Amino acid sequence: MNYFTTLEDLRNYRDTPALSQSFLKLVLSNNVNKKFKPTIQMDLGSYLDTLLTSPDLADDLFQIGLAKRPSESMKDFIDTLWQEQEEVVSVDLNVEGYKKRVVELAREAKYQPRWGDDAIWNSIVKDGQGYWEELVSSQGKVLITQEGFENCQNIAQLTCSSSITGKYFQDQEDIDKYYQMPLYWTYEGLLCKGLLDILIFEKETKTIYIVDIKSTGVGTLKEWFQVCRSKNYLFQMSWYREGVIANYPELIEDGWKIECRWIVIPTGFFKPWVVPCTDLMLKFGKEGYYREQRCYYSEGFFKLDTPVSFTIKQEEYIPGFEEAIRRYKKKEQEGLLDYDIEYYETKGKLDNTQAEQYYFT
To answer: Structure pTM?
Structure first.
């Protein structure tokens, strides 16, 4: 049986003050106050996810029909203006109050610094008027162009009918599938949450599947794993697994096992993959791991009388969610100004080993 989330469930999830994997990643980078700006690819990825996992909510969350999306810079200016409005004064962007604020935002961002105010405004209003009108009518929904709509609809249909991925979206007897499943739990005394794309309970094999959908612009598995490493998808999946263990202890005690999968959907040439997240990957996502870095120097590099050749090896630490939790608790318990824990632990002074590690990695 397939079970789908409701709009109220999603809103409750967003509004619940709990630690999420996305927030904890910002703790690691000390960027919790950084303003989130979704890209075109992110918006399209979210729309595709919704078509696959919550199709009945697509019209509630997205508005289709934007003829042309402005550049990312112009979009940022207009989005900021929209977010600042307590109420919309006009659907016409060419209003004096709007003009003044948008030009201010453009100046702050150093957009076309050699242009005058009128030139900047004329450029923005030319490509931004249609976008502003869609924002006003959408009332907060994510805007998708007609082209983006058609592409995502096509990819969703292919995904659901594929022999590789179709079974994850079909209604199957004795298999319970929950789409956009919100989970809440406590970890080390902290309230935590996670929103799983698909959570599957296969009764016959006593297996719980955690399935995360990843749409991607890359075309090969090698490229995708590079993206996987750069965005630390292991962190996210291990966080979800922790939530499942906390929510279903009776099944774990009864011998149910947990399997984790990524459904990787290339948005160019359609050739989907189902990729396992192994126990070792999950361990790394939770506990972190070290990646060896090498710096090579060839003979004669230092132009000495006697040529030398040697290798400097350093290890780069890739933290898991346990380290993110540690930094979060330390900052909160000790009243630190931010999450740059290394600064406070070293008191702003690096030793030789630390300096070399930063330089060579």
So the answer is: 0.85
